[in-house]
Amino acid sequence: MSLSKSVLAQGKRLLMEAALKLNASTRSLNALSLRELAREAGLNPNTFYRHFKDFDELGLAIIEEMTQQIRSPLRELRRKAAESVVPADSPVVTWQENPRLNLARAMQVNRETVKLFFDYVAENPNAFILGIRELHGASPILRRALRQVMDDFSQDMADDVRELKLMPELTQDSLYDIAETITREMFQLSMEYIEQPERREQICIKAEKMITSLTMGSAVLHGHGAILMGALQTE
Amino acid sequence: MSLSKSVLAQGKRLLMEAALKLNASTRSLNALSLRELAREAGLNPNTFYRHFKDFDELGLAIIEEMTQQIRSPLRELRRKAAESVVPADSPVVTWQENPRLNLARAMQVNRETVKLFFDYVAENPNAFILGIRELHGASPILRRALRQVMDDFSQDMADDVRELKLMPELTQDSLYDIAETITREMFQLSMEYIEQPERREQICIKAEKMITSLTMGSAVLHGHGAILMGALQTE
DNA sequence: TTCTGAGGTAGACGTTTGTCTACCCCAATT
DNA sequence: AATTGGGGTAGACAAACGTCTACCTCAGAA
Fold this sequence. Notes:
- 2 copies of one chain form a homodimer.
- By secondary structure, chain A is mostly helical.
- Chain A has one domain: Tetracycline Repressor, domain 2, CATH 1.10.357.10.
- Chain A is 76% helix and 0% strand.
- In chain A, α6 packs across α7 and α7 crosses α8.
- The longest helix of chain A is centred in the C-terminal third of the chain and has 34 residues.
- Chain A is elongated and about 65 Å long.
- The N and C termini of chain A lie far apart (43 Å).
- The interface between A and B is large, with 37 and 36 residues.
- The structure holds a DNA duplex.
C-alpha cells in the first residue's frame, strides 16, 4: 500500500500515495483533477508542478517504484521454492532420468509462486489496481510503460524456468510465449483476487491449474509428451 | 465501428458513437465531460439527459448493443468451422475411435474462430477498446456488466465445445475454466491486435498456440493424455 | 556569512464544467 | 382540431478547474 520511504521529497511521496488511493477508490488516473489530488494529499495544488510535469510523469514514477519493489522478490521466491524440493547442492537429475521428481518440483514452485504473488497483491492492492487500470487506460505512455514491465516479468520467469530446469527443454521463443501468457493472466486474475476476497482460495487454485495446463500442453506440443505421461501414470 | 441503425433516437445513437470515438482516442469514459461528448456529437449538452441518467447508463447501453452484435455470430462460426471438417450428417466418430480426425477438427475450429474473432476486432476496434478499458475501469457498474459479458462468452464457448465434441470429455467445471481463461486472453490480446497492426499475423498464431496448449494440457491432466499422444505420434 | 535553489504556499485569472429552468418543434393520440 | 409528450435547444448560474506570478522558508554550498 505505502510507497517506499526512500529519499523522495515528502510532497512527492504524498502525491503519489494520494494518486494510488484515489485511483483505486474513485477515478482512473487521467480522470483525476490536479486540485482533487492535492486536496487528498493535503497540499497546495501548485506543489504538483514542483515534482511532475503532468499526470503521465506521476504515473511513471509510481510504476517504477512498484516494479523495483516486486521484481526481485519474485525471482528469489522461485529459487527458494525450487530448493525446498531439491536442495541446490544435490546432484542434477534430468527430466529424462526422473520425470516424476522434476514434475513434483515444478508443481511445487508453481504453487508457491502463485501463492506469494497473490499475497503481494493482497498487500498492495492499490498498486495493482493502478497497474491493471492503466495497462488498458487512455494514456499511451503509461500503457507502453506497463507493457514493458510485464515483458520484463515474463523474461524473468522464462529465465528462471530455464535456469531451474522447471520444464523439459523448449525453444526460447515458446518458453517466452508461455511466460507472457502466464504473466498476463496473473495480472488479470489479481484484479479478481482483490475484488472478491471470498473467492481467493478458488482463484489461487484456478491460477495453478491454468499454469499447469498451459505448460503441460506446450510440453506435449513440443514432443515431450512421453516424459510427462511417464511422470503422471506412476502416480 | 458504427452502432446498429436500430430504432434508437438519432441523438442517442450520436451520443453513443461519440462516446466510443472519444473513449478510443483520448480519454476513458469516466473522464469524459458531458459537454465534450455533446460537442463531439454535435448536440446540445442537455440532450444527454434526455437519454441517460449518467455515464454508467451510457456505457451499459453501448455494451448491450455490442454484445448482441457479436455473440451469436461467434457461435455460428464455431459450427461452420466444425462442419467444414466433418459435415454434420456424417456419422459421429468418437475421440477414442479416431483421435487424429477429432484433433484435426478441433484445431481447425480453433484456427478459424480465432481468425474470425480478430477480424471482428479489427472491424470494431472502438467497441473493444471501450470494453477492455472499462472492464478494469473506475466504474463498478461497468466492470460488473463486462464481466458478465465475458462469462456469457465463456459459457457459450464451453457449450459449443461440448456439443461439437471438440475435446475429449472433461468435467463441466474444468471445461468452463478453460473457456474462461481463453476468453480473458482473447480480449486481452485483442488490444494488442488493435494497437500493433504489423504484428497481427503473429498475434493470431500466438493465440492459436495458447489455446492449443491450454486445452491439450488440460486433457492430459484429466487422463486423456494417451488419446492425445495417439493423435500426435501418427503425424 | 551570504546566497541559492528546491520545496511549498497564496491569490488571482479566465475557462470549462454540471445542471437548472424555460422554451421550441412536431408526430402521434384523442 | 386540440393536446400531449418525446426529443432537442438556449441561456444562465455557481462551482471547480488548470495555470500563472509572486512570495515564503530553510538547508546546504560558496
